[in-house]
Amino acid sequence: MQIRTKFNLFIRCPNCGKGLSHDLSLFALSGGRTISLPCPCGFTKARVRKYRREITFLVACLICERFHFLSIPMSDICSGKAINLYCPLTQVPLALGNEGSEFDEHPIVYEALLMLEDLALRGGILCQCGHEEMDVELYPDRLELVCTRCHGRLTIAAADEGDLADLKAVERIRMGQEGHHRSFHKE
Ligand SMILES: [Zn+2]
Ligand SMILES: [Zn+2]
Ligand SMILES: [Zn+2]
């Protein structure tokens, strides 16, 4: 089994709305050091610290307008488990993570994720149920958007440059009501 020491957190800034990915390393967290994750706007989105066998996070919540204290076992990071942090009150995802090397192996998925975040910021992703809040699930060759209200799903291919070019041309993604749509519409 490969031991992961690097991981990656995608966090959206509650202050300016910009989503950015941050690389973190268990090595950098050793010795009780606290790492701050700042947004380019100057706002500190999160503080990360290793405490005993846990990695603790103080994450700025997009909804509650305060920081939440969350923790995950270090073994989850070492085994390469996805690290997703949710608001304990609303279950809204605050930080979407993955161990670093997986994104290195799947740069297309990573690019697609950034494009989708951009699109979401411009209000370009909407479910037919009227909801705009989406969960994103990452796979080696695709992303799946899941509506947090009706749980409708939409698969977005992210296997090659052609898929990225397709995604780049899209200005709006409308998710199907029954959630079985397998492609997005260009509008
Ligand atoms: Zn910001
Ligand atoms: Zn919250
Ligand atoms: Zn929906």
Describe the structure using short key phrases:
single chain; 187 residues; alpha+beta; four-stranded antiparallel β-sheet
Low-confidence stretches: 177-183
How many separate domains?
2
Beta-strand percent range: 35-45%
What gap, in angstroms, lies between the N and C termini? 46 Å
- Order of adjacent strands in the largest pleated sheet: 2-1-8-7
Average pLDDT confidence is 81
Number of helices: 4
Radius of gyration: 17 Å
Instruction: Give a quick account of the main beta sheet: strands, pairing sense, barrel closure.
Output: 4 strands, antiparallel
List ligands, each type once. Answer: zinc ion
Number of strands: 13
Q: What is the global morphology?
A: globular
Order of helices and strands: EEEEEEHEEHHEEEEHE
Structural class: alpha+beta
Helix content: 10-25%
Structure description:
This protein has 187 residues and is α+β, with helices and mostly antiparallel strands. The chain folds into two domains: 96 residues, no CATH class; 70 residues, no CATH class. It contains four helices and 13 strands. The strands form four sheets. A four-stranded antiparallel β-sheet has the order 2-1-8-7. Strand 1 and strand 2 form a beta hairpin. It is globular, with a radius of gyration of 17 Å. The chain starts with 5 loop residues before the first strand and ends in a 12-residue tail after the last strand. About 4% of the residues have low confidence. The site of one zinc ion has 7 residues, from loops.
